What does this fold into?
Amino acid sequence: PSSFLLPLSSFLFPPSSFLLPLAEGRSSFLFPLSSGRRPFLLPPSSGRRPFLFPLSSAKILNEAKNRMVYRKNPILFMESKSITGIISTFGNCHKPQRKIYVKGIVTKSTGNRYKVLNEEGRFVDCTFKGKFKISGIRSTNPIAVGDRVIYKLEENQETGLITEIEDRKNYMIRKASNLSKETHILAANIDLALLVLTTSRPVTQPGFIDRFLASAEAYRIPAHLLINKKDLFTQEEMEEALELQAIYNKIGYKTLLISALDLDDIKTLQELIRDKICLFAGNSGVGKSTLANAIEPGLDLKTDSISSYHSKGKHTTTFAQMYPLSQGGFIIDSPGIKGFGVFDMDKYELSHFFPEIFKAGSSCRFGNCLHLDEPGCAVQAQVEQGEISYSRYESYLKILLDENDKYRKPY
It folds into this structure.
């Protein structure tokens, strides 16, 4: 690698002579170039004597160059026309070869285009092969934010083609209201799901909360609830929020009353999500993007006011996107969700995704009790006694009886 050419003084040697010191040997060799003007390629050999190759065309030159690149030897080109005709490609020969296949994590999904953060910390724009569309993943987005993928660098070395999705540890999925598809994956490989909700402006319905939590249970995703905008609550709204907090804390879901304007609340959230891939989900207008901006100053995510006519949020986040946190970890900011349709839950397993109902169900007279009107049902008894929240039981019944006919049946 340390071989190089030195022009010799014209008064000592002929002007077309060069001195080639070799790294492996300690002696130098003198090579007079041919009297013609044909270029020569002089790679140092593995022994102590170099070899001289005449190159008759650019094609042979390129082939020889490529062979030498793979051997990781320096290549020196010269032409006997003049000393200044020397061209050295030493730097190019020792430039590290870029990987063809690269691993990364999807941070943005828009249609069939994705932004992938690779192992080198670089963002690369990628697309995917059509085979993913027919590989059994019947979804509006077969590749989701949070997916770990392998992509192949395209010829320009700047964009990639996703060739493989690595196994997911989990994902948050819901039925899609788009009737041409079955499901929509909110995000994959989630460490913590945070459902942001409000008791006013807009009101988050209990059924929405419970469907989200049931899906999180089904796909083994830890979930917490964030009751946001406490700084705007009236006395009545605060009492309602505290009641909601008590219900879900009792079940085992950590439930926090927060405000994006409260620095202590933001510090609590920062510690909660440190070094985690965290999904922020909820209805439009509940303040997901505002909270993300407060947690990570500098994100500058777009926010908007609440519609005064409907008291509902406006869509400002139109696609899911993952953002790295300076403290470690990622936030996934997802679009506002109007309805949350649970997907493919067997009626005999549904109670497993309501922890308090599942626990009470172990005392039912019949092992296959659906907790409807069966005799000896311990769940109904606890609902009547106030041990199980009626709103939670009502959510369970609605999912069981599939009263929400906006969504298609599972395939």
In short: The chain has nine helices and 20 strands. The CA atoms of residues 381 and 387 lie 9 Å apart.
